[in-house]
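User: Is it possible to get a 3D structure for a protein together with its bound compound? The compound here is D-xylitol-5-phosphate. I've pasted both below.
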Amino acid sequence: MKHLIAPSVLSADFANLQRDIEMVNSSEADWFHVDVMDGVFVPNISFGFPVMEAIKKYAAKPLDVHLMIVSPDQYIERFAAAGASVITVHYEACTHLHRTVQAIHAAGCKAGVAINPHTPVVLLKDILADLDLVLVMSVNPGFGGQKFIPNTLNKVRELKAMASTINPDVIIEVDGGVGIQNLGDLIRAGADAFVAGNAIFGAPSPTAMISELKQLDAQLKSS
Ligand code: DX5
Ligand code: ZN
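Assistant: Yes, that's possible. Here is the predicted structure of the complex:
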C-alpha cells in the first residue's frame, strides 16, 4: 500500500477554510486530519462540531478525526454524525478503552487509538487486535508546528513488529513535526499514514508539497 497523507486542518487558514479544503480536495492527499482539543486533555482549544460540520460540507475525502479530549465516549455518536470516517481517541484519556473502541465501531467508524510520546507501545498489546489504526504522537499534542521527537522512530518499529503477529492490517499513523525531512525514515520504520500541518500549509505551494510527500519513494530518500 502506498503511504497515506493527511493534511491537518488545524494549520489551515480558518478565515479561508473553504478555499483550503478545496485545495486539499484537488490535491493528492488521502484524508483530512481534524484535531479536536478541549483545553483539558491538552493545553489548547481548537474547534468543535460547528466547524467540523463546515469542513464536512466541502471535504471530498474522509475525515480522520483526532480527539484530544477527556471522556470522549459521550461524543462518539455526534462525531460520527458530523461526518467522521476514522475516530481516534487517546489511550491516556480512556479508562475503559475497549468499550470506547466498540462504541466507535458501533457508530460505523474506523477506530483509532493515539499514544502520547511517553506512552509505551506495549500498552496497546491487548487492544491492538480490535483497532483499525494506531496514531503515534511524535510531539506532545496540543499545537501544530512543533519539533519531531526522534524516539518516535523506535516506537514505530516496535509497534510494526507487534502488529505483524497481532494485527498486520492496522494502519500506523504518525502525527507531529512530520515533513519531507523525516518521511522516508518513518516509512522505512513501518508507518503507513502521515499527518502534516505546518509542512503543508506553511509551504510556498501546499499542493506541490502534498504531491512531494505522497510521491516520496522511501527506498530513495535517506535523511
Ligand atoms: C498536534 C496535532 C497535530 C498537528 C500537527 O496536537 O495533533 O495533528 O496539527 O501539526 P504539525 O504537522 O505542524 O506538527
Ligand atoms: Zn492530530
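The longest strand covers residues 84-90. The mean pLDDT is 97.
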